[in-house]
Amino acid sequence: MNIFKKKTTPKDALRTSKREMAVATRGIEREITSLQLEEKRLVAEIKKTAKTGNEAATKILARQLVRLRQQITNLQGSRAQIRGVTTHTQALYASTSISSGMKGATKAMVAMNKQMAPTKQAKVIKDFQKQSAQLDMTVSETSHNLKSLLYPTSTD
């Protein structure tokens, strides 16, 4: 293990993985293409030997054709598995991106909560409500006193 080696990021790991999977897929597709060409040649050769009436050679070639088609089928299955792994890797990267985004959002929310200090905010609101109530009472009392001074009622 190299201690000086830089740790790979998920983005780099995804890029490397995609590149390797693409190379593997292309290799398998090349192999499938060459096997399909071989299949065409073999079919033509089977027809040719069948026309000449050589049954033993035709049977051997037919067995080869069956094996060849099985190889093609197996390679197509491998190609599908590689594509599935590629898709799965991309999904994992997406979930990693989402989790890192949520981590950042959580940090921002924590910072805002520290800055806002919800308990301080609640105390300020409570003090404001108290002062507002006192002001309302003072205003109503002053208003009542002014009315009584301006419009005295005679009860003598």
UniProtKB/TrEMBL annotation:
A Pfam family the protein falls into: Snf7
Gene Ontology biological-process annotations: vacuolar transport
Top-level lineage group: Eukaryota
Classification via InterPro entries: Snf7_fam
Protein name: SNF7 family protein
Source organism (scientific name): Arabidopsis thaliana
Lineage, uppermost ranks: Eukaryota, Viridiplantae, Streptophyta, Embryophyta, Tracheophyta
